[in-house]
Structures are given as structure tokens and as C-alpha cells.
Design brief:
With about 300 residues, the protein is mostly helical. The chain is built from 15 helices and no strands.
Length: about 300
């Protein structure tokens, strides 16, 4: 009779099962603490240097012309009595600046909304609808991404001249829409492709139409990318000067052209230029920080599946 001996693995001691990662030495903890603090200090210094021009612009807008010509903006730390709100009162009474600021709103808001709406619809079609020539159409969108803006200025200017749209707000808005659509379609399509296909198929099995799927599934899921596109487009249009310089007239000029004309007219009126520049910068900052939580997700749209 042969005795069969079954070997069993001895259980690990309780101490070994409960033990976590190896304990760090005191020196390692000190180095880790110093490293994290040093990194924070470096990032803080970089942020301060990055914000220095903005701080200088703000302080210059709160000083009168005599103080701006006589000393640098940093002297307010020793002479805070230089700060005044007179420049902002003057600029609120400047008809040219106010009209140009309103023109900028009338250009930026429609150009942003049209690009977002059209890009979302086109991106959904290119991502989830099957039709002939879809891939070639996407190749054309990518090709338009690399086309420089200067190539389109002269042909569009001739077209606007024939249609009597030269110098109008509508002409500036339409050019910005055409310029922003390739990037918008490319960005949103990449994000929409990351949406699970089963989600759309389940909606179709429940009897949902393509419009219902787009409105109730695609838009809520794609909100980060859509908000990010809106931020990009709004900032580009708000800060644009080249398109306005070519297609806008004196009655339809945005704030960028108005400030440039004031510089050419008066030369060294730092109080007006600093105040107008800071006012024109406040609205994009508000838009950016209000949608900041969607920005990172939108930038990474389509990078992961």
C-alpha cells in the first residue's frame, strides 16, 4: 500500500499578510517633503512671472497719464495714492470704445454659436452616420485645417465686394464661422467617436430618431468638448485683429481695431490704451474661468478610447 503524501502550502504569517509597503526612512520622508515644497515654490514663481504683464496692465489702467509717463507701474507699492478710477470713468464716456466693444460682442457671440451648432451636427454625421463620401469629406476637413488664413483673404474680399457685404458685421461673422468650422468638426468628431456604440444602438432599438439621439445622447455626453470648442472659438474671435482689419469698417470695427486706431491717433495715451485693453481682457477671462472645468476634458477629446 502506497502512502500518498499531499503537500500543502503553509499559510503566511498574519504579520506578513497585514504588512503594507516598506516603511520609508526619515531621510526619504524629508527629501520627499522638500521636493514637493520646492516644486510648489517653482510653480508659484513661474505663475507670478506669467501674470506680471497682466498686473502691470491693471495698475497702469488705474494711474493717470502723468504718473504713467513719470515712473513705472511698480511705484504704486510705495505710493498707492496714484491709484484712481478716473480712467474707467473716461473710457465709459468714450463713444468709440463703447461702440467697438459692442461690435466685438455682436461678432464674437454669433460666430461662436454658429460654429458650435454646425460643428456638432457635422461631427455627429461624420462619426456615426453611414453615407457615400464620408471619409473623403473628412479628409477635406483635415485639409482645410492646414490652409493658412491669408490664402482666403483676397478671394473672400472680392466676393464680399460683389455681394455688397464688405465692411459689414455679417461679413466678419461669416468669415470667422468659415474659419472655425474645420477645427470644430475635427475636435467634436474625435470626441463623438469615443462614445460607446452600444449606447446609440440601444437608443435606436427604443425607436429614437437620429435627431433624438443627437439631442438626448450626443449633446449631454459631448458637453465637455462642446464647451471647450466654444471657449476656443470665442477667444479667437474676440482677440482677432487681422480679419477685422481686412473686412470691418469704422462703424463695425471691434475693440482690437479701436485700440489700434487710438494708438495711431494719440501715440502715447497709456491711460486710455491700458484701460481699454484691460476692459477687453476681462470678458474672455470670465468666459474661460466659467467653463474651466470642461476645458481639460475638451482638449483631450479623442485622445483616449
Amino acid at each position: 500500500m502506497t502512502a500518498v503524501l499531499s503537500s500543502t502550502t503553509a499559510p503566511e504569517p498574519v504579520e506578513d499578510q497585514l504588512s503594507g509597503p516598506p516603511r520609508r526612512s526619515v531621510a526619504s520622508r524629508i527629501l520627499g517633503w522638500l521636493g514637493s515644497r520646492l516644486l510648489r515654490v517653482i510653480l508659484l514663481v513661474i505663475a507670478l512671472f506669467w501674470l506680471m504683464p497682466v498686473l502691470g496692465l491693471l495698475v497702469s489702467s488705474l494711474r493717470d497719464e502723468t504718473d504713467n509717463r513719470g515712473s513705472g507701474w511698480w511705484t504704486i507699492f510705495t505710493a498707492p495714492a496714484q491709484l484712481t478710477l478716473d480712467n474707467y470713468r473716461d473710457i465709459l464716456g468714450n463713444e468709440t470704445i463703447l461702440r467697438s466693444l459692442w461690435n466685438t460682442v455682436l461678432i464674437s457671440v454669433p460666430a461662436t454659436l454658429l460654429v458650435v451648432v454646425i460643428s456638432a451636427l457635422a461631427a455627429y454625421a461624420l462619426a456615426w452616420l453611414n453615407f457615400r463620401g464620408r471619409d473623403w469629406l473628412m479628409i477635406g476637413v483635415v485639409a482645410m485645417l492646414v490652409m493658412p488664413i491669408q490664402v482666403a483673404l483676397i478671394p473672400i474680399a472680392r466676393l464680399y465686394g460683389e455681394l455688397d457685404m464688405f465692411g459689414s458685421l455679417l461679413g466678419v461673422v461669416l468669415f470667422h464661422v468659415a474659419l472655425g468650422l474645420p477645427f470644430g468638426v475635427f475636435l467634436l468628431r474625435n470626441f463623438f467617436l469615443g462614445i460607446p456604440k452600444d449606447l446609440l444602438e440601444a437608443a435606436r432599438m427604443d425607436g429614437a430618431t437620429e435627431w433624438s439621439i443627437f439631442r438626448r445622447v450626443i449633446l449631454p455626453v459631448g458637453l465637455p468638448a462642446i464647451a471647450s470648442l466654444a471657449i476656443f472659438q470665442f477667444l479667437w474671435v474676440w482677440n482677432d485683429m487681422l480679419v477685422a482689419l481686412v473686412f470691418a469698417s469704422s462703424d463695425s470695427q471691434p475693440i482690437t481695431l479701436a485700440l489700434q486706431s487710438q494708438l495711431r491717433q494719440f501715440g502715447a495715451n497709456m491711460d486710455l490704451l491700458a484701460t481699454g485693453s484691460f476692459v477687453s481682457m476681462i470678458i474672455p477671462l470670465i468666459v474661460f474661468f466659467s467653463c474651466q472645468r470642461y476645458f481639460t476634458q475638451g482638449v483631450l477629446a479623442g485622445s483616449t478610447k
